[in-house]
Design a protein that fits this description.
Layout (H helix, E strand, L loop, with lengths): L3 H6 L12 E4 L9 H16 L4 E8 L14 E7 L11 H11 L9 E2 L1 H10 L6 E7 L2 H15 L5 E6 L5 E8 L1 H6 L4 H13 L1 E8 L2 E7 L9 H5 L2 E3 L5 E3 L4 E8 L4 E3 L2 E10 L4 H15 L7 E6 H31 L2 H8 L1 H16 L5 H34 L6 H34 L6 H43 L1
Antiparallel strand pairs: 1-3, 1-4, 2-3, 5-14, 5-15, 6-14, 7-12, 8-9, 10-11, 13-14
Length: 500
């Protein structure tokens, strides 16, 4: 019961960061941003990032790369920030503090920041589609309504403590220039629809006509009107279309030009239209943050019929891990019990041995709590490994107590409960040295991990922490509690045999 308050206060996460040695900055702005403005925004952000002493170099891009695995919209930027070795950082600076400083300095109207790491980001986006620690997927039949729900969620989640930024995709916020062809006018000038479409495609959109070879590099060559002739709808209306008799007809006579809005990018998931809300958070564990956010969303957001929400990102990993651990942990204990029973041939002895596991959990939970770690898959791996180690030490403890009991019984000295206590004391004293050797071997093997640093060190610390705390508490409690439990069991047997 003393340990439960500490366990209840532990947060939850899927896995701690791997410390890749660089930062991945992903600013997102509204759809419809121009190439010029996007390039200017990237340059400004790169310059500001380069001013930090810990930064070695910065490289940013906007839009999608020439690959099918990167369907990024043009409104989403990606900036890789390579960091210097930590020996060259300012005193007291950490990865979290550096990201916090960068986030405070780089603030632009209409731009939502997200901070992560390159490899981690790619894995998250490929598996869930969400690039931030927490994301919400909105499913429904109408994109306009999905965007409306997303904007409402954006306002609600901004008030949740720990929220660094929230951005709801403007799934219906793309801007387009539509050409409504006048079929009657086109026919009157002896033209066909294809003639007009060819001019629009080549002169305005650009047509690739050849490829230039520059050593090992290949570049496509496209031809279209100069920017100053196509950067305004009024100028586009004056584009001349050649006819069969050699006359030049302005495009405005053959088509109506109008600006329209529509989906910038259509997402389809589980046979439904979808929109994403990206939530970047800091200073809190993901599990508690999502629970609080869920309650606020349930209170303030009323979903229309046919629309659903799904919480994703790393929170989705946590839910999957919990479902698997619900089977893995009991299965592990069952396997340990079966192996013990095959050797001890006594369910009571197996139960006594397995008492070492709750003894060790006391130290494991408190040590994890004092270090400020969250419960994660890495911590549970350490706890599962700890269960196996404690079962081994429990068997040895029981073996020494049984040897002392059998020795006294064979010598005819096991007559009263006082004799039983003397035998147990003799067996427990013999157990101190091997138990101490076992504990010290584990401690000296694991303690260096707690001072390690670099990629993967945070994961290893979470695995080692419950084992370190667990072996210490099990060492103390097994020596104090095991003999008492053994005395109760053997004393009951002794009284029953004498009574018979």
């Amino acid at each position: 019961m003393v340990t439960y308050p500490a366990f209840a206060r532990l947060g939850s996460e899927f896995m701690p960061p791997l410390n890749e040695g660089m930062i991945f900055y992903m600013p997102t702005t509204l759809p419809g941003i121009s190439v010029t403005q996007s390039a200017r925004l990237l340059q400004m952000q790169d310059r500001m990032l380069k001013t930090f002493l810990e930064v070695q170099w910065v490289f940013g891009k906007a839009g999608r790369a020439e690959t099918s695995t990167d369907p990024a919209p043009f409104s989403m930027g990606e900036t890789t920030v390579m960091l210097k070795p930590e020996s060259q950082w300012r005193p007291g600076m950490t990865w979290d503090k550096l990201v916090e400083e960068m986030d405070k300095k780089i603030r632009f109207p209409g731009v939502a920041n997200a901070w992560t790491m390159p490899i981690k980001n790619r894995i998250d986006m490929l598996s869930t589609g969400i690039r931030t620690p927490v994301g919400i997927k909105i499913f429904g039949p109408d994109l306009t309504k999905i965007e409306e729900i997303g904007r409402h969620l954006e306002m609600v989640l901004n008030s949740v403590p720990g929220t660094r930024s929230v951005f709801a995709e403007r799934v219906a916020g793309g801007y387009y220039l539509d050409f409504d062809l006048k079929r009657g006018e086109i026919a009157r000038y002896g033209l066909v629809i294809e003639d007009i479409q060819t001019i629009i495609e080549s002169a305005i959109g650009g047509e690739s006509i050849t490829t230039t070879v520059e050593g090992r590099e290949r570049y496509p060559v496209s031809v279209r009107y100069a920017r100053e002739l196509r950067d305004d709808p009024e100028k586009l209306k004056r584009i001349l279309i050649p006819t069969m008799n050699g006359a030049q007809v302005p495009l405005a006579q053959l088509a109506d030009l109008r600006l329209a809005s529509g989906p910038a990018m259509i997402r389809d998931e589980d046979a439904q239209l979808a929109g994403y809300v990206y939530v970047d958070m800091a200073g809190r564990d993901i599990g508690n943050y999502v629970e609080e956010a869920k309650s606020k969303v349930a209170e303030q957001v009323k979903l229309p019929t046919g629309y659903t929400l799904s919480w994703s990102g790393q929170y989705e990993y946590i839910q999957r891990a919990k479902e698997k651990l619900m089977y893995v942990v009991p299965l592990t204990l069952l396997i340990i019990f079966v192996l013990l029973y095959m050797n001890l041939r006594s369910a009571t002895k197996c139960g006594i041995v397995l008492l070492a596991i709750p003894f060790s959990m006391i130290g494991a939970i408190w040590f994890v709590y004092l270090l400020g770690y969250n419960m994660s898959v890495a911590v549970w791996v350490g706890i599962i490994a700890l269960a196996g180690v404690d079962a081994e030490t429990g068997v040895i403890m029981l073996l020494y107590l049984d040897q002392a009991f059998d020795k006294w019984r064979k010598e005819g000295r096991m007559r009263t409960v006082a004799d039983l206590r003397e035998a147990i004391s003799e067996g427990a004293v013999k157990r101190i040295r091997p138990k101490m050797m076992t504990v010290m071997a584990i401690l000296f093997g694991l303690l260096p991990i707690m001072w390690s640093h670099g990629a993967g060190a945070d994961v290893m610390k979470r695995i080692a922490a419950p084992m370190i705390g667990g072996v210490v508490s099990s060492f103390l409690l097994e020596l104090m509690v095991y003999p008492a439990i053994y005395e109760v069991w053997r004393g009951w047997q002794l009284r029953r045999s004498h009574g018979g």
